[in-house]
Amino acid sequence: MIRPFYWLTFVIAIGFCLEVQASNSNAPNVLLLIADDMACRDCGPYGNAEIRTPHLDRLAREGMTFDRAFTATAMCAPTRQQLYTGLFPVRNGAYPNHSKVKPGTHSIVHHLRDLGYRVGLIGKKHFGPKESFPFELLNAKTGPAFLTRDKSQPFCLVVASKSPHVPWTEGPNDYDPDRLTLPSWLVDTAEMRTAFSAYASEITAFDQEVGNWLDLLDEHQLAKNTLVVATSEQGPQMPGGKWTCYEYGLQVAFLARWPTTIAAGTRSSAMVQYVDFVPTIVEAAGGDPLQIDTGQAGSDSGGRDCDGRSFLKVLKGEADDHHAWVYGIHTTQGIKAGTPFPIRSIRGTRYKYIQNLLSDSRFHNTVIEHDAANYWKSWVREAASNPHAMKLVQRYLKRPAEEFYDLEDDPYELTNLATVPAHQTRIQEMKKRLREWMQQQNDMGVETENAAQVHRTQRR
Q1: Cis peptide before 129 (omega within 30 of 0)
Q2: Chain-wide mean pLDDT for the chain?
Q3: Distance between alpha carbon 353 and the CA centroid of its chain, in Å?
Q4: Cα 391 to Cα 202: distance, rounded to the nearest angstrom
Q5: Tens of pLDDT, residues 236-266
Q6: H or E element: which one contains 211?
Q7: How many Å apart are CA 241 and CA 166, to the nearest integer?
Q8: Within its chain, how far is the Cα of 124 from the centroid?
């Protein structure tokens, strides 16, 4: 005989399950496609007509392209863990490379499972501990079956590609180095052209992966109610890209298609960050983004909620703006031992302010130490006789305490305006906002940089 108390508990539990199932009857599937070290400017939807990305182009035609989307850290482990947790890197603990979040941190896996989803991942992980990211781990064989395993249950599938991460060996390998247009912030040498063409080939390889998954959705008639997001993670392993707070590192491609909700062929200038992804998906799935428990205290509201906020209204075409400011952080500790070089940044719709907290040091990282393609060595060689090359080399190695850029007039951040009198009021305002953000995140600057090794772990 079932006692009344236990019977009541059972009925409440069944009722809750039915309520979740009912509330999610129209919840979208989610397919997140992540490149590995790809600048947004190096694909078709963002204006590159030379690198072939027909499937990303298709997503842009059929959905929304975000022109101002950003990660807060241009490194793999911190980028992925902020994307999955909705927390900025210092608050979640994963701010150096090869790092892991603080114990007890919750991720999108927890939040969507609570809403009745199954949540899987194929490909690159680079996160930890596993308790914070309990994805169902899949592979090339089990991944497609995951899509159709239970049509009554919505899914979220993350496909984490390894392209175009170095070494650049994948793709068609048919780009002519001499015919590609190099970005103006790269020194034009034969070695740089060879490296860039190999990188371009891997972008096309990633694009083909995107196409394969879009075909699977079509084949199984899942496209209509699947929110597809394709994003580029961060800039490539080139000077001014990965491991910096420049736009080539922090700005990401972000394409979203959801036929029942997102108008085709639209673009948004709303500023969004990777920490906004979790609350957006939770709201799209029928949950309350303000009730998310990240497992970590210290939010702007004083609770355990996300640092990001949902931009579902932007996706629906009901809002044109999102954040007024977005933030960046970089630590060299955890990449290579040596003199720390902590960087922080803040960006508005037009202006960008960067603080180099130990500017007396010389910047040093893997681009310089492990130059397998010899393109950095070719920069240094060219700098001996080319003033423009010398400027770019020095810009990378030796930076002032403050950098300030007008991104409308100088989108490639080549002219530092930090000492121009006309900008001092604006610089002081942005410096104050950056300091307030760091305080809210419990980011102590140099002290936080020196503690980076505590958060390191091995590659996963």
Answers
A1: yes
A2: 92
A3: 20
A4: 29
A5: 999 999 999 999 999 999 999 999 999 999 9
A6: helix 190-219
A7: 13
A8: 14
- The candidate with the shortest Cα–Cα distance to 199, out of 251, 241, 255, 139, is 241
Could you write out the DSSP letters of every residue in 144-176? HHHHHS-TTS-EEEEEE--TTPSS---S-----
Asked if residues 457 and 439 have their Cβ atoms less than 8 Å apart, the reply is no
> Tokens 């499937």 sit at which residue?
55
Residues 6+ apart with CB under 8 A from 180: 50, 193, 196, 197, 200
The answer to whether 426 and 351 have CB atoms below 8 angstroms apart is yes
Measured CA to CA, the distance from residue 307 to residue 86 in angstroms comes to: 6
Contact by Cβ (8 Å): 210, 59 = yes
Q: What is the per-residue pLDDT for 366? A: 80
β 326-330/343-347 pair status: antiparallel
Contacts of residues 213-221 at CB distance under 8 Å and 24 or more positions apart, as own/partner, are: 213/31, 213/33, 213/159, 214/55, 214/58, 214/59, 216/144, 216/147, 217/31, 217/147, 220/147, 220/148
Distance CA 194, CA 204 (A): 16
Are the CB atoms for 48 and 41 separated by under 8 Å? Answer: yes
**Percent helix, percent strand, percent coil in the chain, to nearest 5:** 35, 15, 45
| 442 Cα distance to chain centroid | 22
Q: Tokens 């040498």 map to which residue? A: 189
